[in-house]
Specification:
With 350 residues, the chain is mainly alpha-helical. The protein has 15 helices and no strands. The chain has three domains: 97 residues, no CATH class; 103 residues; 65 residues, no CATH class. The chain is extended.
Length: 350
């Protein structure tokens, strides 16, 4: 990206003198950038952080002026915008390193079993990594294997040193132990096959324990969901009943609509997201059902607006006659079916 390269060069010319002081006395970025696999010098990264923070200073100054002149207090959150930028530059490498470790952890049991089986047949782990570089089913391990191959075949390191360096720069402790343990076993002349078998067995046991713990957490989450939904439904039913008896002129119908069609679905979506984040992931995520759902969701929303005459704001001649048969609950049910059924069919056919 030419613009990014230009910004990096400009930032280093402006702040290259103070970047080493920041790295030495405040925060050391080198290890974090290596674990996140961000190909940039730490000095350049710090200089770019200072440049972007400097570019956001006018927004902070304008916010202060608007607060003092117009009294628009929500702009107070824009005053520390340069500080937000610097915090963002600190968090981005950590987030990328965490994503790298998470993706690699999903594939580690299968990769360790593959390397162990190949080693039992007399094939060195480096040769196994060369084969893993072409495996489409394990994209994270394929990236790690390509980095090791690049160190050996381009930079001229020996395979053992390349594996040790890959272990040092990796954020996943299981992967570090696997590679560094193999290198240590080779150096001391130990039984490589026995080490790889025990390590693969340990990785699979750890994976099984995490799957079991995830299943237990999933059960607790579903119980919580049922309790929350039942108790909240009862509480709101009592609230709406009492409100309808002692009504002060404000209709309770709008509150029932908001609870039924807005709050309850949002709460369900939150629990679905929590359940999805807790369950063990596969190395590859099939995105076709999600793409179909995204397209059909737009069609479903448009259909809902048509069936309800845009929630009563627009009168459509051909649709108005259908509202005697299709009320709001039926329209929502039709829209949900249109949005989700095609994605479910695609998922079942994979």
């Amino acid at each position: 990206m030419p613009l990014l390269k230009t910004l990096e060069g400009l930032s280093f010319r402006l702040f290259g003198g103070i970047a080493p002081f920041f790295l030495k006395n405040i925060y050391e970025f080198k290890g974090t950038l290596e674990r996140a696999r961000i190909k940039i010098y730490p000095e350049t990264y710090v200089s770019l952080m200072f440049l972007i923070a400097l570019l956001t200073v006018p927004a902070s100054v304008i916010s202060v002026v608007c607060i003092l002149v117009f009294g628009f207090m929500p702009l107070i959150f824009l005053i520390p915008l340069p500080f937000y930028v610097m915090v963002g530059f600190l968090l981005v490498p950590m987030s990328k390193a965490s994503d790298r470790a998470t993706a690699l952890e999903r594939e580690m049991p299968f990769a360790s079993a593959y390397i162990t089986v190949m080693a039992s047949g007399g094939i060195a782990p480096y040769s196994s990594f060369k084969r893993l570089a072409d495996v489409q089913l394990m994209p994270a391990m394929r990236g790690e294997a390509r980095e090791i191959i690049k160190d050996v075949e381009i930079f001229g390191r020996d395979p053992l040193s390349a594996l040790e360096q890959a272990a040092r720069k990796n954020p996943l402790d299981v992967f570090r132990d696997f590679l560094s343990g193999y290198a240590s076993t080779v150096i001391i002349g130990g039984d490589i096959g026995h080490f790889l078998e025990r390590k693969a067995e340990e990785i699979f046991k750890t994976r099984a324990m995490r799957v079991k713990a995830a299943a237990e957490r999933m059960g607790m989450l579903l119980e919580t969901f049922i309790i929350v939904m039942v108790m909240m439904s009862l509480c709101f039913y009592i609230l709406f009943s009492v409100d309808s008896i002692y009504s002060t002129g404000v209709s309770a119908y709008s509150g029932i609509i908001l609870y039924t069609y807005l709050f309850t679905p949002l709460l369900s979506i939150m629990f679905i997201y929590l359940a999805h984040s807790m369950q063990p992931k596969t190395p590859i995520t099939e995105m076709r059902p999600y793409k179909v759902f995204g397209i059909c969701a737009v069609i479903g929303v448009a259909l809902l607006l048509l069936l309800t005459n845009f929630m009563g704001y627009v009168n459509i001649p051909g649709i108005s006659s259908l509202q005697t048969v299709i009320d709001l609950p039926i329209a929502v049910a039709i829209a949900l079916f249109v949005a989700t059924a095609p994605a479910a069919i695609v998922h079942e056919r994979l």
